[in-house]
Amino acid sequence: MAMVCLSDFEAYAKKYLPKIAWDFFAAGADDCSTRDENILAYQRIRFRPRILQDVSVMDIRTKLLGTEISFPVGIAPTGFHQLAWPDGEKSTARAAKAMNTCYIASTYSTCTLEEISAAAPGGLRWFQLYIHRNRAVSQQLVQQAVALGFQGLVLTADLPYTGKRRDDVRNGFCLPPHMKLKNLEGAFEVCKMSPPFHSLLDPSVTWNDIYWLRSLTQLPIIIKGILTKEDAELAVRHGVQGIIVSNHGGRQLDGGPATIDALVEVVEAVQGRVEVYLDGGIRKGSDVLKALALGAKCVFIGRPALWGLAYKGEEGLQEVLRILQDEFRLSMALAGCASVSEIGRHLVQFSKL
Amino acid sequence: MAMVCLSDFEAYAKKYLPKIAWDFFAAGADDCSTRDENILAYQRIRFRPRILQDVSVMDIRTKLLGTEISFPVGIAPTGFHQLAWPDGEKSTARAAKAMNTCYIASTYSTCTLEEISAAAPGGLRWFQLYIHRNRAVSQQLVQQAVALGFQGLVLTADLPYTGKRRDDVRNGFCLPPHMKLKNLEGAFEVCKMSPPFHSLLDPSVTWNDIYWLRSLTQLPIIIKGILTKEDAELAVRHGVQGIIVSNHGGRQLDGGPATIDALVEVVEAVQGRVEVYLDGGIRKGSDVLKALALGAKCVFIGRPALWGLAYKGEEGLQEVLRILQDEFRLSMALAGCASVSEIGRHLVQFSKL
Amino acid sequence: MAMVCLSDFEAYAKKYLPKIAWDFFAAGADDCSTRDENILAYQRIRFRPRILQDVSVMDIRTKLLGTEISFPVGIAPTGFHQLAWPDGEKSTARAAKAMNTCYIASTYSTCTLEEISAAAPGGLRWFQLYIHRNRAVSQQLVQQAVALGFQGLVLTADLPYTGKRRDDVRNGFCLPPHMKLKNLEGAFEVCKMSPPFHSLLDPSVTWNDIYWLRSLTQLPIIIKGILTKEDAELAVRHGVQGIIVSNHGGRQLDGGPATIDALVEVVEAVQGRVEVYLDGGIRKGSDVLKALALGAKCVFIGRPALWGLAYKGEEGLQEVLRILQDEFRLSMALAGCASVSEIGRHLVQFSKL
Amino acid sequence: MAMVCLSDFEAYAKKYLPKIAWDFFAAGADDCSTRDENILAYQRIRFRPRILQDVSVMDIRTKLLGTEISFPVGIAPTGFHQLAWPDGEKSTARAAKAMNTCYIASTYSTCTLEEISAAAPGGLRWFQLYIHRNRAVSQQLVQQAVALGFQGLVLTADLPYTGKRRDDVRNGFCLPPHMKLKNLEGAFEVCKMSPPFHSLLDPSVTWNDIYWLRSLTQLPIIIKGILTKEDAELAVRHGVQGIIVSNHGGRQLDGGPATIDALVEVVEAVQGRVEVYLDGGIRKGSDVLKALALGAKCVFIGRPALWGLAYKGEEGLQEVLRILQDEFRLSMALAGCASVSEIGRHLVQFSKL
């Protein structure tokens, strides 16, 4: 079967992954309405394509906090890559480096940060952090990430507790015995997932902890999980360098807005003071173009990256990225933009439907 | 099968209840459009979740007219609980007490008010009243409720006649011979249900009858069935203590608004002068949060309580309440609220769809 | 099978009528979108029901141009009733009289006007007219209707040519040999239906022909087929006594508005100068209530009357009318109205959906 | 099977064409959302039909840049007609001439321009041009079209690269060996379709190339692919004689607007300075009427023409055009318009849905 678009990878993963793993990756909270809205919302955005622009030379590169990447799509932090492919996050790191883009490695990786670094030396990587009740654990992870050359620190702020994902509860989801959350070994008992698992995360984290993180490192801090202008304003005031508009793939609070809808108010509030990114619902190159037209500097893919891994590991993920890259370039050209800098709000309108 | 969410109880009840009982509980008037809208309307409300709030200590308690309950979900008045479980309303009373919440016992109970009281002494209970053509019957019931320690009187105001529930007509629904409307024995012949049944209710009741009720008791009067700002204003002027925004689960006038939609105009009209509650369409903890964000002090569940009873009687109903409680607490935390007092209008927006 | 609501009659008719007859009655033009919109549009109208009104004595009578009818639902003009029931329009006339409402007999009846009159002497009837190229034919019909005691003249104005009803074309629809358009015998050859059939109607009819009609009779003239405020204004200026907002059951121009939607602008334009009625999409008593709330004085049913005939002739049609009557009375009571005069615009709102 | 409406031809073509050809004709870009929107958008437009207009004499003729055609529907440029019918574009030319309308012959025809001209001498034809990297090829084609009596030059401006049509990629679509792009023979290698195929088109074309085209010929220049007011304004300023609002049948940038939606802003921007046409989504005569009411001078059909060819070649296409003509005439009459000049913006409104 030819892999023509990202849905082909999704179908493959659904067919070949163990049900418990597929369910875990696919899960949304409660009725999954926010998860599904992340995708549906793109259909309500219409392009206003311009014609007769010289698009013979296309430049789709962009910069993340000053570092160039090949196109404005990175890898969002997701956990447990070994559930998708034996080499786990090492494959992810290799694919991201090969495609010259950014990989945000999750605290909940099944490889150590050292392994990830060693797998693809010199790749652009950020480290995603959950703050634990035992702050020493988090501090140690941050320092390790710094030492290993990670170039950004992504604080996930929308998981004081884990969302209710019905299928995971039904399946009694937990990691298979041979997989470990290697970055947390010793810090707590790994095999008990879900609510007890996350009881080690600190639900008392507040904006003031941004200052504590800042005290640990000079790395740029990116905050992930912002959906309102009020929180966007607070993020800027607390000195972060970037914001990821995210609803955790619809896995946390069901009933929240699609990220592409929330992006509008966040971008308007931020007024260019920090970079704004987005994850959730990206399935086609034209989705990327819509997000950039609405003000995102870059988007990150979560589930599609896992489907790519499930298909053929590092090679599969590269294929996913390459398809997105081709589609993004083509969409840009057909919309009349020869470089990312030409993309703007004028390119899209919200459908009255 | 694990009972993970309220839909699981619904599926169980549909499978195991006799069809005639299931149909009676599930019935909506005419095309059931209002019944279904009660649920669909929640999907058009989107959260605006706030992050990085300290939600380590969650307080989900609230007060109903000054009396504390464990969380803002009570049991709405529904009839004929023995159709769902042999112990009928006695089980309902026990579950409500165990979960420390309010149970509104229906005039159309299959247990006497004495039995209900004795089953769960000290539980917070309100009594739901229909006004009969023979006012002495109603007066006697009110006095009995007062004597038994019921703490509120809920006047159902949207049933001058019974709505047309097609399946009940087709099924020729009536109570099985061994069940009785025990609070009304002697007052009228029980076995003839539907239109003739309700011909003993008084369709001439008007706002002035609130004064008559007030003359019978000092209990707080709560009026159930309000859907407009005009009637909300009238209710306040007539001295009620509370309003339940309700369309009788979509069983009366088909084509009326979803209760969560009507709540907005009622809350705005009432301006905090009396407490406003809601029933209809609550299926998840996040629905409760949406209702509170729009101004409800508490919500009441009807059909889900019956599903819980049908599953395992008092234990099943407790399970339903516990799930709602857990989901509500989690939704609050994920929306950034540590206590009920932090919930407000800013938490939600109406989707343009 | 119990006949509980109008859909039951529809299902019966679909099952038992010959396909060619069912298709003819059910047909809409082109994609049938206007036919279907006639029904869907009611779902976008929400009641604002009022409670605690004295509805112990219900008065659902109304008047059509001064003549009292038992409730505001009459029989719209439809053709070929013998396709539904052997006695054809005679049964229709009997049922309408028995239920004390108005029957608009069609030019395209399969009984003569004399037969219709004789079947139910003294019944309230209006005569529906198509203007033929040969004006003498029309003039003679009008004079006959006057002589037979018809009390109104309904000019159908939306059929200069017949709409394209795909199924009729596929079926090669024409009347069976033993049925005749008895009011037109001699005037033209009956057995060739569809386009050729209607080629005898005059597509050059204009507003001036209202004056010609007026010259023939002093009967009230009601114009059927108005969908815009502009035409409503013209109708009033040309001295008609009533307007039927109609799209011919969606059988003429596909893509036109639902009649309940068009009613709003017509009522607003007319400002009470003439009576405004509606046909199309009435399937429940609550639909009647919505139409009256939006300003219709009365509604007329087309297809449901035919389903009633197909079920049991005059008796079946009475059953249809009785169900509508009961539902209308109940809806009124549940909305808080004890008489038709209390129904008003405040009772409804248009859903944002 | 009777061919009653255009969908019948679609069903026929889907059934009898080789899958690879059907897929190619049916294809839309990516998720085909724009392709489908082209059709769905018509359902959101409602007529405001006027009654009692004299429609006994109907005049449905219009003029394209001064040349009369029998009704405002022409044949849009589509490629590879031999995939639908052995005689290919020769049949198309004959059908268009027989029906006295305009045929826009595609650069990607499987017959030469000479063959097309010879097949139907004297027919009204425009030539559709893609600009090649090798401008000499394009120049030669333009000069040939002029010499052969083509009366307009249509520049397709929305295909700097080919859109991603998933089925074509999966099918490995290319022309069968016995078909050739005869107008381009010698200019490049034909058998390799899709991306490589179009790599010979020039993605550097800009508005200035309009001046180059003008330098080649005095023929009217019509620009195809405009979807915004900004580009409409630019087109007028660059001296074109006509604009075709088009999204290439949804085959280029998925996520763009339906053409009937884009038409509104283009017509408003153009203010009558040049003629505005539309293609995409026309399936019924009433669609044509809606487009004209919103300001289009004429519409063009793409896929329906191919379905007609697939059905019976020139005869089938005539049947398609005749059905559209009959439906358009009937829709006009039912909307109260006796001639094209009476069609205007007042005839339609956008549904709130």
Describe this entry's structure for a reader:
The structure is a homotetramer of 353-residue chains. With 353 residues, the first copy, chain A, is of the alpha/beta class. Chain A has a single domain, classed as TIM Barrel. Helices cover 41% and strands 13% of the residues of chain A. In chain A, the strands form three sheets. The first copy, chain A, has an eight-stranded parallel beta sheet. Chain A has a two-stranded antiparallel ribbon with strand order 1-12. In chain A, strand 9, helix 11 (259-270) and strand 10 form a beta-alpha-beta unit. In chain A, helix 4 (89-98) packs parallel to helix 13 (303-335). The longest helix of chain A is centred in the C-terminal third of the chain and has 33 residues, at 303-335. The relative contact order of chain A is 0.20. Residues 190-196 of chain A have low confidence and may be disordered. Chains A and D meet through strand 1 and helix 13 of A and helix 7 and helix 10 of D.
Annotate the secondary structure layout:
4 copies of one chain form a homotetramer.
Chain A: H1 6-16, H2 19-26, H3 33-43, E1 45-47, E2 62-64, E3 67-69, E4 73-75, H4 89-98, E5 103-105, H5 113-119, E6 125-129, H6 135-147, E7 152-156, H7 166-171, H8 194-198, H9 208-216, E8 221-226, H10 229-237, E9 242-245, H11 259-270, E10 275-279, H12 285-293, E11 298-301, H13 303-335, E12 348-350
Helix pairs in contact in A: 1-13, 4-5, 4-13, 10-11, 12-13
In short:
The structure is a homotetramer of 353-residue chains. The first copy, chain A, is of the alpha/beta class and 353 residues long. The first copy, chain A, is built from 13 helices and twelve strands.
